[in-house]
Design a protein that fits this description.
Low-confidence stretches: none
Number of strands: 0
InterPro entries: Poly_Biosynth_Transport (IPR050833)
Largest sheet: none
Number of helices: 22
Main location: membrane
Strand content: under 5%
Family: Belongs to the polysaccharide synthase family.
Subcellular location: Cell membrane
Radius of gyration: 24 Å
Membrane topology: Multi-pass membrane protein
Mean pLDDT: 82
Shape: globular
Amino acid sequence: MFGAIRKKIAIGYLWNLLAKWLNRSIGLISTLCLVRILDPEDFGIVALASIVMAFFVMLSNAGTDKYLIKVKECTNEMLNSAWSLNITLKFVCSLVLALMAKKLSIYMNEPVLENVLLVCCLIPVISAFKNVGMVLFERELDYKPITRLSVGVKVAVVPITLIGAILIQSYWALIIGLLASEILTVLGSYRIHPYRPKWSMTLWKNQWSFSKWHLLSTSSGYIRSRIDALLLGRYLTSADVGVYRVSQEFAWLPFTEVISPASSSMYAGITQVREHHEELKCSILNYLAFAYLLVVPSAFGIFALSDLFTEVVLGEKWLEAAPIIGLLSLLMLSMPLNISLQSVLTNLSKIKYLVLLDVVMISAIVGLIIGLSKSNNFDLLSYTQYRVALVVLFMLMLCVAYKFLINLSPIRIMAVILLPTIPSIVMVNVIASLKPQLHYSEAINLIILVIAGGISFVPVMAVLIGVTKNWFVEYALIFDVLKKLKASTQKG
């Protein structure tokens, strides 16, 4: 039984990953075309609108999908009530956004933003009408139709946006693309799933008892992820804030593009084993082993190659971001711990502890920035260095939370994290020794060092997995996958 669930979780992750990569690739191609048609100001206006929208969408997120996934039996009445509650919350938030559109445009010193926000406030309302039956796919860990829909919508929206850009030659083409995406997603959801929701308020009280904590958790998580930029903008220059945000985006690419897609399938999978404590702990450790097998070498690799990476990918004008990118890459080490704890505690209806963890971290970040602002050497680099030190304390705090809330040994968790660290250190030393000997162009040097790093990491890690597979069950699973992959390659 549990073996089948693990297989479904793995397959679900692969479908989510495929959707992420395909959508990102299509989006990149679309952006490369649009930048040749529209002006930077057009993208700037839409970016401002997106920031505002993200805040209001977060406030309207009732977590109805997560509620429906975690319940033992999902009835039609639950589906209908969740669908209706979601529509109501998103309508209220959209109405508030519409009423505040003018004040927000004045605050951001961008008059045209008012009309853009008035149109964009329709997006949450439209998305709320998506067929709630799609949740049943997730409950069954069947992500194939969801992936096909998201990729299909992305493919359809690209020509709509490009044609609009050619005809209109303004930011409205991008807004039309956003609206088209939501409309096609809603229509597609009814096409691929037969369920037809009806208005119902019967179970709102039960669902709100979950949603209020979920809303509080997403709000605290949103503040935790944005507090750096908000406060740094007060004490440092806008250029520093820009460097920090861009550095974050590129430093965390391995996590956002490879590991993050696993969270959806993990949440749905945990729902099916949450009452079996040992299997729950096994699922968590399996996820952490897989995640850190990718995150640790990625973080160490970006740290070692941050100077070349910055020069090749971002250009010479961003060279000051190189040490920031290198340091921020180390923050990825806390992300798998955090995201798996979120999935587990949400499933176990212990969301208040997530809020508490966020509040502690927010307080620490605020205290760090205020403390540094009173010193004479407060700059972006010094803050980032202290921020990395802070994440070590955050990881220890997460390990303690695992112990007291799930009874999962912190020593076991740290062992899973530390195993990939050994070959990662070997990899960094290989890169450091090889780097001074290369005298090609920066791009070629970067490619050579990335390949050398991979070649040095993989065999050492494979040996470690083989040696420790009897002690670490979670790595034994990875070892079996590697053996099957090797066997299939030899047959081919």
